[in-house]
Structures are given as structure tokens and as C-alpha cells.
Protein: Potassium/proton antiporter
Amino acid sequence: MVDLLFPVTLIGAGLVLVSVMTSALAFRFGAPLLLVFLSVGLLAGEDGLGIHYNDAGSAYFIGSLALAIILFDSGFNTRMRSIRQAAAPALMLATVGVLLTAGLVGVAAHFLFGLPWLEAFLLGAIVGSTDAAAVFFLLRVGGITIRDQVRSLLEVESGSNDPMAIFLTIILVELILSGGSQENAWLEMLKGFGIQMGFGLLFGLFGGYVVLAGAKVIRLEGTLYPISILSFALVLFGLTGMIGGSGFLAVYVAGIVAANNQLQGQVSLRRFLEGLTWMAQIAMFLTLGLLATPSNFLAIAIPAVLLALVLTFVCRPLAVWLCLLPFGYKRNETAFISWVGLRGSVSILLGIIPLAGGMENGQLLFNTAYIVVLVSLMLQGWTIAPMARKLGLIVPARMGPVERLELELPGGGDHELVVYKVAAESPVALGDERLPRWARPSLVVRDGHSMRYQYAGRLQTDDLVYMFVAPQYIRLLDRLFASPVRLTLDDEDFYGKFVIDPHQPMSALAEAYGLSGLVDPAQPPVSIRDHMTERLGGTAEVGDRISCGEVELIVRDLDADGAISEVGLSIEETEKTPNLPLFQSGRELWQLLRARLASKGGQG
Structure:
């Protein structure tokens, strides 16, 4: 064992280092970063450098632990506004959507591979959920900003649909290994689903509030604080799993609760989780890459690739469309949501379960899941940004990049210490704007020399400005220190060609554009801003839009308090983005049905 210490350390650390170094190439060429990590593991494995690793049990353990960390971080980075805005459709996709996708893929797998029905549906369950790591990475690190309503749905769905896929996989494996002879099998599945999801949700809520209470009472040395929070999350994961609940759902919910209730020390905790999550992703993908033997893929390559294409172009889109019918999503939004259905580590991880369980076709299921993931990352991972642009879902930036560093102050003060680097041609660098008094600037660092703000004169490019700011005003300061952005004609079209006063009453808008039924005369008058804020779940972001009959209202700008300060108006028929012939909303289908019934009545 001692003799293995140094070689194993050398190989393991070397693979991690290679993965990190190759990430620079991934960012430069736009490759899906998780595909890079997976490829490094494959190249180092049995068919590459010759590292022999076939312990499915330890791979599942490493992958599950890494996934728990990733899901806790995903919950920690999920805003409550996203939950409020997308809870219902995301829950539908995370449950019914996974079930529909698994069923449709199962039908295709039965005919492509000749598998028995239960095993075919098991393969559908294995690849039925989207991958939280892949989706979160592409949406947050991939350099694209999409409409908030769509982004919120994708984030919540990807973080919450894994428990459903895990539950279906485990139940179907148990059913197959028992010979399918269990009485009342479907009743047991429903009972097991209720127990897993119920305990997962209950323990997640309980655990999140325990974290909040403990952070207020227990005082730890700074570096121990994030370690204690993560350790508790893993304790929660293990405890929930031991009593039959979904530990993955529990840690995700606990992360949401803790992050959205003013948990102390969030800045240091986020940095710690961000680094650890990257490490967990690298470790998981390297392990799963080493476990595979690519030479075994050739025998099933054609049907497996066909299955991946059927999943991408038929099963996922059909399931998403059916689930989103009641929620009024537009065709382009539904199309994009169906396209961002990346399969990743979760599918490979679930593919290990039948392999470790000794199923006769376990290796076939694992290899097929692996090929599906590779096709998904290569096909969808490279095309997320172009697809969003083609469908008109990219939110044009209203300001350029901002270099800002937030430093956490001890205690629960209502101010933060932030450091800005002055960008070239920014309003403060050009002298067009001065820093407001409430910003409390205290120090300026110029060319390596520090000076008090009062003696620094006009701010210059690359100056570092230290100031104490109330958190709600950071958005306003970002504008002052950001590099400029020139809106194109297409950008102006996105924000609406007509600018309206958000303080005007909705009744005036309804009267001007003949929007009957938009305002109830019996209700107290409400402003355009308040109406939009309510429709958007309580808060708004630049680029958010709501449909009001034949027109759309778009948030063009926000004030320092995050309230809507400028609204654009767009006539829906003038949109330049393509209107797809598929993915009609429930409202469109109802209007089409009414028109056909009316035409038949007129003919009669």
C-alpha cells in the first residue's frame, strides 16, 4: 500500500492538473468544458495511457458524493426569485417531464436494441434527466445572458430533476433483478416516490434552517466556517438517504433555503463552494472517464448514436412541449428549453447502478448511456449560444464588463467593502459622472501608490477604488465603473422601439392599444411598473418581458433600488426572430381550435 502512495498521487494529481490546464483551450475554442474533463479521463483509461480502473462501486461512491456537493452549490446559487418565477413549470419538467422522456426513450431503445421493455425503460430513466453541472456551467460561465424567465426555468429544472431519474433507475433495477414478479409493483413505486421526495423536501427545509440558526449562534474561525457548512450538507445527504429519502433533493433544497435567508459569511462560503464544486466536477468526470472502455463502444455505436439523436430531436422536445403547454411559454422559448437538455455525469453515474448490480445487460446500458452523454455534450454543448441567438433569446448588454471585488466585513453590518477597477471610457473615467456621497469612497490605488479619495483628483483608467456601499446600491455603481456598450439596431428592437413611462396606469395602456380584458375596472388602479413586477414574481431584471395581448412590455432599465425605471413596448408581429411551426402554446392551440370550430359552424 505504501508503494502505491506516490504513483497514485502522481497520476491523480497529474490528471486533475491536465484537466485544469486544458480548460483554457476549452474557453478559447468554445468547447463544453465538462466534455474536456471526460475526454481526459477516457484518454488516460484502459484504451489510452493504459490505466486500468473497473471498480464500479467506488466510481458510484465518488460520483454520488461529488454530485451532492454540486447540487448543494447549485441550490446555493439559485435565487428565490427564480423559484417563484419558475417553480410550477420546473416542477412539471422535473417530474412528469423526466417520466415522459424516460418512457419515450424506452420505446425507442426497445426497437433499436431489442431490449425487454423493463430494461428499455431503465435505459430511458438513466438518460432521462438533464445534468445540473453542465447546464449551470453553460448558463453562468458560458458568456451568454438569456431571458430571465427561461434561465430561471432551466436552472431550477436542472437542479431538481436528478432525484426523479435516480428514483426511477433504482426502482426499475430492483424490479428487474427480482424478475419483475413483485406484486403491486406500480403501487410500491408510487409509495417509494412519495417517501423519497417527501423526506428529501422535508429534511432539506429542516437542514437549511438549521444551517441558518447555527450560523447565528456558533462562531468559528473564518476558514472553518465554510468547511462546517459543507460538512453539515453532506451529513444531511447521508442521513436523508439512510432513512429512505432523496439525499440529492435534500442538499439542493437546503442550499436554496440557506442562501436566500441572509446567511452570514456568504461571500467566503460562495468562494469556497465554487472552488470545491470545480474540484468535484473534475474528480467525477475523470473517474467516470477512467471507468469506460471506448473500444467496447464500437459494437453499439450506431444504435446508441441513433438513440441520442432521437432523445435530442424527438423525446426531450415532445416532453418539454407537453409539460409547458399550460404555462404560456412562446414557441422559441420552448424550443430553446428543449434544446438545453444536456446529458452529463448523472446519466453515466446512473448507468453504473445496473452494472454494479450484476444485471446481464448492465455493460450495454452503461456503454449506451456513455455514448448518449458524449453525443449530447458535443451536439448541444457547442450550440447553446448560437441557438439562443437564432431564437432571439439573448439579452443585449446595457453596460460593459465590470471589474469588482467584494470583501466581507465581520458581523452583520449593512455595508460591504467593494473594490472597483476603473474601466477605460467608463462614466467616472471620462468625468461624466462623480461618485455619489453615499458610496463612501475611502482609498484610491494608482500605479501602485495608495491615496485618500479626497486627494486623488479625477479618477483615471485602471485606478482601484475602495469604498463602503450598501448592497442594494452596488447595481448603480456598476454602471459608473463599466466600460461603454453601443446598442445596435437589433438590440434596440429587443428592448422595444417605443419607450413608455412605467408610472402610468395600466388602464391608459389598455385604452391606447385596445387591450380589452387586461384591466379589471372593479380593481384599484395599478401602474405599469407594479403590474409588470407582480407578473415577474416580485422582482425584475433588465430584458424581462411580459405579454399583454398583442403587445409586449420589456424592462429596459432599473433604478438603484432594483425597481423598473424604463419600459419598452414591442408589437409582437414586428419581431424579427423566426416563429417556429412547432411548440405552439396552449393559448395558441385553443385559439386555433376555436377558429376551426367557428369556420365549421359558419359552413354549417
Q: What stands out?
A: The domain at 403-481 is CATH 3.30.70.1450 (Alpha-Beta Plaits). The chain has three domains: 2-193+281-390, 403-481, 489-576. The chain has a mean pLDDT of 81. The first strand starts at residue 403 and ends at 407.
